[in-house]
Design goal:
Nucleotidyltransferase, domain 5, five-stranded mixed sheet, elongated, 4 helices, two-stranded antiparallel ribbon, alpha/beta, single chain
Length: 229
């Protein structure tokens, strides 16, 4: 509790200042008055006790009542999982991909995989990939060191493009493909070049997103020695 009398300054020049008690300050605040506790006079500026906000302050804002009772149902509460799931399902309905094209381009080979995606009722669960076909530098006819060449990666990408054209012919309005790159081998540049060239002209409109998922190592243990062919 604050004392009612306070002495400030040197004893030779004593000055007495009236100091309000806590009870006086609370009483003034309950009456809506803004009082300076050191001088006992009305304070300037904003009032000490702000008025509670009501629904008129913000049109369309959240209700003034807090807690679960403020919302009619969990679906209307923006912080509930059901509200987020419903909103996420509506967003994903028009943009989620139907197929994915994975390109793993290492220093020694290029592996391309084409998969279809199956979604569950839970919008937070990732889709299930169903592999339709895969191609590598060896499966397209290249041997040993030739599997790591630019031409090997180009042939793998062209074969996947043909599969995308078949899917697009069957479902022209509902074919959305996401491309995932992994690695910095020659097959990465070959796939990108083929997509921008005449080979990818027919399926370029089905590519909705290109994602790089190459892991980058920072520190850690010593890497394995480079493979020699």
């Amino acid at each position: 509790m604050l004392c009612r009398r306070a002495v400030v300054g040197h004893p030779a020049s004593v000055r007495h200042i009236n100091v309000m008690t806590v009870q006086d300050l609370l009483l003034a605040q309950s009456q809506g008055k803004s009082i300076n506790p050191l001088t006992g006079r009305p304070a300037t500026g904003q009032p000490a006790v702000p008025k509670p906000k009501t629904a008129e302050h913000k049109v369309g804002g959240p209700p003034v009542v807090t807690g679960p009772a403020a919302y009619n149902s969990p679906e209307s509460n923006p912080l509930s999982g059901k509200f987020m799931a419903k909103d996420l399902a509506g967003v994903r309905a028009g943009i989620r991909p139907t197929h994915r094209f994975d390109c793993v381009a290492s220093r020694n080979n290029t592996i391309t995989t084409f998969s279809s995606l199956t979604y569950s009722q839970d919008p937070f669960r990732p889709p299930t990939s169903n592999v339709l076909a895969w191609f590598s530098g060896g499966s397209v006819g290249f041997k040993k060191a030739q599997r790591a060449t630019f031409e090997a990666g180009h042939q793998c990408a062209v074969r996947v493009f043909k599969l995308i054209e078949e899917v697009k012919a069957a479902h022209p309005d509902d074919t959305r493909v996401h491309i995932y790159f992994r690695g910095f081998g020659p097959g990465r540049e070959a796939t990108k070049t083929a997509l921008l060239a005449a080979e990818g002209e027919n399926i370029r409109d089905t590519i909705k997103q290109v994602i790089d998922r190459t892991p980058i190592k920072i520190g850690g243990t010593r890497a394995k020695k480079m493979r020699r062919l």
